[in-house]
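RECORD TYPE: inverse folding
INPUT: structure tokens
STRUCTURE:
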């Protein structure tokens, strides 16, 4: 059987919407900085004064977001010739170091209270609640059926909720259309998950979930966001009624990834199962292995060809055998070495980006327009462990 082709050399790109969002957030940040600014100075000085207080502490994720927002504002100022090139380069490097110094533990805020580390006891109580209500005269409506199946199979598969919309099961494989298949964030549009070792009841429940989601979608005229809201609200009410921590629709994905870590799957295997192109994503943004459940929940297996491509993509050494001594990883032992894997030549240059508008952007509510005809005039490139570079076309 010919090997499947994956995007081993594709680098993530930033969409116009993401760039627009970063600039909008950066302008909000700039407005706050200007209010606190004392004395004259440019945008670099304003941001420096905002973040130089040593008492400030931000989560690492927050500092990364701030860095991208600040970079978007500086790029805009550079394009408008309100900043010089050397000033922009040195200023961004200085602000990056300043933000890094502000990283540290801080109290939980609303956005951090979403549950990642759901427990197996809570899982059993949730399923028991559905089982109790199905015996009532009214039974479960379709929303409850879909929600119960999402909860039941989620820790085994680790899919994003929206990925069940286009999932199919055939020949002991779950075919999943990657929700983040664009922009190089996943290795292609589809990933395959081996389910031969999963309990039959779980596979049967997955079939039911795949059948019921389109019917529920039809009830709300194809509005998936409305379905997500309905499912999330119902799950919150159930958690409150049975007195457990509030689960979210993503909690089971966190549980699955934590369980794969605990079971000893390699970073590349986890990335292949989760639909990531980078092996760092699961490490940085998902629950740790200490929150994983028993190995019985870690029976899903990724496509070995996809694992090999992720290994090549991330310049990793192939793992011959995982800590779990799983035969799936043995496939990597006969895989071609990294030097033998053909890699498509990268483009001569990455597409350039710039944010431009004919309107003045006073205040923080301005949302700029991104115009394609000027996209090649400026690019903000930041390589890991290297200072940012502003290159003019």
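DESIGNED SEQUENCE:
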């Amino acid at each position: 059987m010919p090997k499947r082709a994956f995007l081993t050399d594709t680098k993530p790109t930033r969409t116009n919407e993401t760039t627009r969002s970063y600039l909008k957030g950066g302008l909000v940040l700039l407005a706050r900085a200007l209010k606190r600014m004392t004395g004259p100075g440019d945008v670099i000085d304003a941001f420096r004064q905002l973040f130089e207080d040593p008492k400030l502490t931000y989560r690492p994720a927050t500092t990364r977001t701030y860095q991208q927002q600040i970079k978007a504002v500086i790029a805009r100022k550079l394009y408008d010739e309100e900043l010089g090139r050397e000033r922009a380069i040195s200023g961004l490097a200085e602000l990056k170091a300043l933000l890094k110094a502000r990283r540290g533990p801080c109290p939980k805020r609303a956005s951090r209270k979403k549950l990642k580390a759901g427990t197996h006891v809570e899982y059993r109580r949730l399923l028991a609640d559905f089982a109790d209500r199905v015996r009532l005269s009214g039974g479960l409506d379709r929303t409850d059926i879909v929600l119960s199946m999402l909860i039941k199979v989620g820790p085994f598969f680790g899919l994003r909720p929206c990925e069940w919309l286009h999932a199919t099961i055939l020949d002991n494989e779950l075919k999943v259309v990657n929700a983040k298949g664009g922009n190089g964030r996943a290795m292609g549009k589809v990933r395959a998950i081996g389910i031969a070792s999963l309990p039959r009841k779980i596979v049967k429940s997955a079939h039911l979930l795949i059948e019921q989601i389109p019917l529920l979608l039809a009830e709300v005229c194809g509005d998936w966001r409305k379905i997500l809201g309905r499912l999330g609200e119902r799950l919150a009410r159930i958690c409150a009624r049975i007195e457990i921590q509030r689960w979210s629709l993503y909690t089971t994905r966190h549980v699955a990834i934590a369980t794969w870590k605990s079971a000893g799957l390699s970073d590349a295997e986890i990335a292949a199962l989760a639909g990531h192109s980078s092996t760092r994503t699961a490490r940085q943004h998902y629950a740790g292995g200490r929150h994983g459940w028993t190995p019985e929940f870690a029976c899903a297996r990724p496509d070995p060809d996809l694992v090999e491509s992720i290994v090549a993509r991330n310049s990793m050494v192939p793992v011959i055998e995982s800590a779990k001594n799983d035969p799936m990883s043995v496939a990597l032992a006969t895989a071609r070495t990294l030097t033998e894997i053909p890699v498509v030549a990268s483009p001569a240059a990455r597409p350039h980006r710039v944010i431009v508008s004919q309107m003045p952007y006073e205040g923080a509510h301005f949302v700029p327009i991104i115009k394609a005809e000027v996209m090649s005039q400026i690019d903000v490139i930041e390589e890991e462990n290297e200072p940012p570079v502003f290159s003019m076309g």
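NOTES: The longest strand covers residues 173-177.
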